[in-house]
Design goal:
Helices cover 10% and strands 28% of the residues. It has two helices and twelve strands; from the N terminus they run ββββββαβαβββββ.
Length: 200
């Protein structure tokens, strides 16, 4: 969507949502809700859930919750690259992650979450924490669970602590931010693995 600044038209870059703009209605959550989707050959099988990102004002905080459905063990895979590109292109300030799917204790330093983040985002304005089931002792590099929180840009400078569930099962990760007037925002990313009805 074009925006006007100093008399010039600037186009926002990033993926274009498959939305018929004649049927969008503004909502109070900083997005345009799609009531009609169009599909092309390469996107016909995609399933869309949630809201499409709209323009973001400079005084808004954009918080996103995302189930990753397992990261790859190897770094710089397409899902990981798309994730970090979306953070930058969509102006995501706080990202709540579920089902990271990796056993961080069994991965090398270069494959750790913090190392992956620092390859794409400036570490001076990024704070992150993730948790996994530390009691899972099979020695594998994957596990069907894990949560994390990533804060980026100005909000990261207001971070005042983070943690995970005391049982260290990776079911939730929390982070707190202190704002103007001492107001505190606590965000929690929650995921509890359960058996699939399909037997997977």
């Amino acid at each position: 969507m074009p925006t006007r600044r100093r008399g010039l038209v600037r186009k926002r870059h990033g993926p274009t949502a498959l939305v018929d703009t004649n049927f969008c209605t503004a909502t109070n959550n900083n997005t345009a809700r799609a009531s009609t989707l169009t599909s092309s050959d390469n996107t016909a099988r995609m399933v869309y859930q949630g809201d499409f990102f709209g323009p973001k004002r400079s005084d808004w905080l954009r918080l996103v919750s995302l189930n990753l459905d397992n990261l790859a063990i190897d770094i710089n895979e397409s899902k990981e690259v798309s994730l970090f590109q979306s953070i930058l292109e969509q102006g995501i300030n706080i990202l709540l992650l579920q089902e990271l799917g990796l056993h961080w204790s069994n991965l090398s330093r270069t494959k750790q979450w913090r190392s992956r983040v620092e390859c794409f985002l400036n570490p001076k304005c990024t704070r992150t924490r993730c948790s996994h089931n530390v009691h899972h002792t099979t020695g594998t590099q994957v596990q069907a669970q894990g949560t994390g929180i990533l804060s980026h840009d100005k909000v990261s400078h207001f971070a005042m602590g983070s943690g995970c569930n005391k049982a260290k099962l990776g079911w939730w990760t929390w982070s707190r931010f202190r704002g103007i007037g001492g107001m505190v925002l606590r965000v929690v990313s929650v995921y509890r693995p359960c058996a699939s009805s399909g037997g997977e």
